[in-house]
Specification:
20% of the residues lie in helices and 42% in strands. It has four helices and nine strands. The strands form two sheets. The chain has a five-stranded mixed sheet with strand order 5-1-7-6-9. Strands 2, 3, 4 and 8 form a four-stranded antiparallel sheet that branches. The longest helix has 13 residues, at 47-59. Its cofactor is Mg(2+). Keywords: Hydrolase, Magnesium. Monomer.
């Protein structure tokens, strides 16, 4: 099969503190949008390692994934290009660690924001993905699974040679 379909694998963090959730406001081709700290799985990474890295890059906070909230499939058509993209998202809950205020946030991230669930639900037009609300709903419903459900074989992280 020369053109085998493959989804883009992403990771996202649902981070709650004092009833508020950590989001990022980011520049997109459709303007400023809100999202969970999230991003693509890079070669040689486990999903949990990728999630910790993305949270650090996008928010300057250390993050340790402690639970899998869910695995989500979403199809998206880019507004400007018409590209048809499917994302496979692994969403994690976890514990937030040290804030490294000296760190520059990832390219495109304007700022971090803390919002209540009600505030997030009130602005769906500002969400980068419908998965923001779905992950939030599942988290609030108490959906938690062991991170061990996501197994990464040693062959992924081994360097050859």
């Amino acid at each position: 099969m020369p053109n085998r379909w493959k989804p883009n694998v992403t990771v996202a963090a649902v981070v709650e503190r004092d009833g508020r959730f950590l989001l990022v406001e980011e520049e997109t081709t459709d303007g400023l949008k809100l999202n969970n700290p999230a991003g693509h799985l890079d070669p040689g990474e486990s999903p949990t390692t990728a999630c910790a890295r993305e949270v650090l890059e996008e928010t300057a906070f250390d993050f340790e994934p402690t639970h899998l909230i869910g695995v989500y499939l979403n199809r998206f058509t880019k507004t400007r290009t018409g590209d048809d993209i499917t994302y496979l998202r692994f969403a994690f809950a976890g514990s937030l660690g040290t804030h490294h205020a000296w760190r520059t946030l990832d390219e495109g991230i304007v700022r971090t924001v803390w919002m209540t669930a009600e505030e997030i639900r009130a602005c769906p037009e500002r969400h980068r993905s419908p998965l923001l609300l779905q992950c939030l709903a599942d988290y609030l419903a108490g959906q938690r699974y062991p991170v061990s459900l996501v197994h990464t074989d040693i062959s992924v992280t081994q360097t050859s040679g």
